[in-house]
Design goal:
Largest sheet: 7 strands, mixed
Distance between the termini: 26 Å
Shape: globular
Structural class: alpha+beta
CATH superfamily: archaeoglobus fulgidus dsm 4304 superfamily
CATH architecture: 2-Layer Sandwich
Helix content: 25-40%
Length: 187
């Protein structure tokens, strides 16, 4: 696997809990972890149900789609609890999906928090049906459409400045900078 593989890293921007507004989601297209080739964006509804179709549409229209080796998501949900059906994204785009998580999720707390949003049972089912979580380097990952060996290589190739893969780190910085006027905090 070359260091120049094209990777799409996707993260959401900050939002105010309880407002139920649209949330900015940014995607950065990188060659490995060193060079950004493109930028994508979409909006999802906070705690809504449109992250999966929005993601599929955004990726399907991307001019780099034929070259993408995988997409990295910062977790399995955007805008709070707008949960992505990673299996459906993989099936419809044929691009492997790797969800990257900084720390092992507390599923008891997630289930409790989900009880306050619409369609919480459907969303909880997506959490339960998602691929298993495994520690890869400094992060936790779940993936579909790709082998574990390739996941290790992609995380290693794309993690160049810190513990988070560069496509995700830069997507976070851009999304936060656009929404807040300045980026701060860790990705």
């Amino acid at each position: 696997m070359k260091n120049e593989i094209r990777i799409l890293g996707i993260d959401d921007g900050p939002f105010v809990r309880g407002e139920r507004k649209n949330v900015l989601v940014v995607g950065t297209i990188f060659r490995g972890g060193h060079f950004m080739d493109g930028l994508l964006s979409m909006m999802v509804r906070q705690d809504g149900n449109n992250a999966t179709p929005q993601l599929i549409t955004m990726v399907s229209k991307c001019k780099f789609k034929p070259q993408l080796q995988c997409m990295l998501l910062n977790g399995i949900a955007f805008g709070g609890f707008n949960v992505v059906d990673v299996k459906k994204v993989w099936e419809q785009t044929k691009i492997p999906v790797i969800c990257v998580i900084r720390a092992m999720p507390d599923f008891k707390k997630i289930k409790q928090a989900l009880s306050h949003v619409s369609q919480h049972e459907k969303k909880w089912k997506l959490f339960l049906e998602a691929p298993p979580i495994k520690k890869i380097g400094h992060v936790y990952c779940q993936w579909i459409g790709i082998t574990e060996e390739k996941v290790y290589k992609i995380i290693a190739i794309s993690t160049t400045h810190g513990k988070i893969p560069e496509p995700l780190r830069i997507a976070h910085i851009i999304a936060r900078g656009i929404v807040m006027g300045e980026s701060k905090g860790r990705a």
